[in-house]
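S1.2 Input.
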Amino acid sequence: MIKRVVDFFGDEEYARQRRRLFYLVLALIVVADFLVSREHAEYLWDRLPGWSAVYGFGSCVLLIFVSKFLGHQGGLMRREDYYD
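S1.3 Output.
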């Protein structure tokens, strides 16, 4: 069972199926966000359906870009043989 899961997420031959699965999960999350009751939302954007999914995705992308910038331009990343 574990081997099948590892092969699914590791092998390149399953890339198209993997991408479709991730898009399906993303769509289900956005649809589920429309079903949430928003009676006690404090801010205007908390009442918008899909806001949580968009905010989470945007935050993740921003975190990746900031990390890449700090690693490459900020000098935090070192060569692979740095300690040799």
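S1.4 Remarks. The radius of gyration is 19 Å.
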